[in-house]
Write a structure and sequence with these properties.
By secondary structure, this protein is α/β, with parallel strands linked by helices. It contains 13 helices and eleven strands. The protein has a five-stranded parallel beta sheet. A hairpin with a 2-residue loop joins strand 5 and strand 6. This is Cobaltochelatase.
Length: 326
C-alpha cells in the first residue's frame, strides 16, 4: 500500500505551454489523475494575473484568496488550474450549515465484530491536511466565527493542526495547498448584495499570503465563453445576438457601480439567457425569465432601457407591468 506521505508531483509543466501566459515559470504537477481531480473545461478563459497568483500557491505553498463579484468564476478558476496540474482538489462551501465538527471531526458509533464501538471520524480539514490536496474554502466570508477560528490554525506558516480530542498533532503534507474565494474580502455586506457575509477580523485576513482580484472578462472573451457553452449560437446571427446580450450585461454592471441597480448580470446569467433562448426561441422572453424577474420592480424600467439600447426593441409598458406576475 502506498504511503500517502510519499505521494508527490512527479513532473513540471510550462506555464507558457499549458496556460498561454508569457512566463518561464515551471509548476509541479502529477502525471496520474485521481477521483478528486476536477474535469478540464476547455472553454474556460484564464485571467493571467489571477492564474499566476494561484500557480504561486501551488508552487510555493502560498495561501491564496481570490475575491470578486459573483459569477466571475473564482472557484472555477482555482479548480481549472488544478485540473491542468492533475492536482486533487476538494471544495467546501462555508455556508451557515458548516460547523466546527464538520471541519474537525466527531465521534461516531460503528460496528466492529458485531459490537457497537465509538470511533473518531476525521473532518475535512485533518483529512485534507494529510494528503496532496488543494482545499478550497468557497464563500469564505460567509463562514461562522467558530468555523473561522478552526481554519485560522492551518493558516499559520507551519500549519500544524491539533486534534484535542485525540491528543494528536497533524503536520500538513508537503503538497497540501489552501485556497479561498470571497465576495467582500471580509468587509461584510456593505453593498447589500451579499447577505450572510461576515466581517472578518484583520488577523484572519492577514494570514492569507496572496489576495487576487478577479473581475469580469472582456467583451470578446465573455462572448467566446457563451458561444462555447451554447454552440448552437455559434453562427453569424447568433454571434450578433450574444454580442447584444453581453452589451446588456455590461450596462447592468455599470448601473450597479453607479448605484442605479441593486443587482447585475454575471457571465453565468448570460449563459442561462442564451440557453433559454434555445428553449423559448424569444430573446425578450428568455431575458425576462433569466434576469429581469430577479430585479427590483422599481429598477425594471432601467433594465428595459438597457435592453432597448442594445437590441433596438422597446419593451412596452404593459409587458413591464406583467413581467413580475408571469
Amino acid at each position: 500500500m502506498t504511503d500517502i506521505n510519499q505521494i508527490q508531483p512527479d513532473r513540471k509543466v510550462s506555464v507558457r505551454e499549458v496556460f498561454g501566459i508569457d512566463s518561464d515559470l515551471k509548476v509541479p504537477a502529477f502525471s496520474e489523475r485521481d477521483d478528486h481531480v476536477p474535469e478540464v473545461d476547455e472553454a474556460y478563459r484564464f485571467n493571467p494575473d489571477v492564474t499566476l497568483a494561484i500557480l504561486a500557491g501551488f508552487t510555493r505553498d502560498r495561501r491564496v484568496m481570490v475575491q470578486g463579484l459573483h459569477g466571475t468564476g473564482k472557484s472555477t478558476h482555482i479548480e481549472q488550474v488544478a485540473a491542468r496540474l492533475n492536482w486533487p482538489c476538494v471544495r467546501v462551501n462555508l455556508d451557515g450549515h458548516i460547523s466546527r465538527l464538520d471541519l474537525v471531526g466527531r465521534d461516531t458509533i460503528v460496528l466492529r465484530d458485531g459490537l457497537q464501538v465509538t470511533e473518531f471520524q476525521e473532518g475535512i480539514v485533518p483529512w485534507a491536511l494529510q494528503r496532496p490536496v488543494a482545499l478550497i474554502f468557497d464563500e469564505y466570508d460567509a463562514g461562522r466565527p467558530d468555523v473561522m477560528f478552526v481554519i485560522q490554525r492551518i493558516l499559520e506558516r507551519d500549519g500544524k493542526f491539533t486534534l484535542l480530542d485525540q491528543s494528536r498533532v497533524i503536520r500538513p503534507h508537503p503538497y497540501f495547498r489552501l485556497f479561498a474565494t470571497s465576495n467582500t474580502v471580509g468587509l461584510g455586506n456593505l453593498s447589500g448584495l451579499y447577505h450572510g457575509t461576515q466581517v472578518l477580523n484583520h488577523a484572519q485576513i492577514d494570514r492569507w499570503n496572496i489576495v487576487a482580484t478577479l473581475n469580469y472578462l472582456s467583451r470578446e472573451e465573455e462572448m467566446a465563453i457563451v458561444l462555447a457553452r451554447v454552440p448552437a449560437k455559434d453562427h453569424e446571427q447568433g454571434r450578433k445576438l450574444v454580442a447584444s446580450m453581453v452589451a446588456v450585461a455590461e450596462l447592468t454592471r455599470k448601473g450597479f457601480a453607479a448605484g442605479d441597480l441593486s443587482t447585475l448580470m454575471s457571465p453565468r446569467t448570460i449563459i442561462s439567457w442564451a440557453e433559454n433562448c434555445e428553449i423559448f426561441r424569444n430573446p425578450a422572453l428568455a431575458f425576462r425569465l433569466s434576469f429581469l424577474n430577479k430585479c427590483d420592480e422599481a429598477e425594471r424600467p432601467i433594465v428595459a432601457e438597457y435592453y432597448q439600447r442594445c437590441f433596438g426593441v422597446e419593451l412596452d409598458e404593459s409587458w413591464m407591468l406583467t413581467a413580475g406576475a408571469q
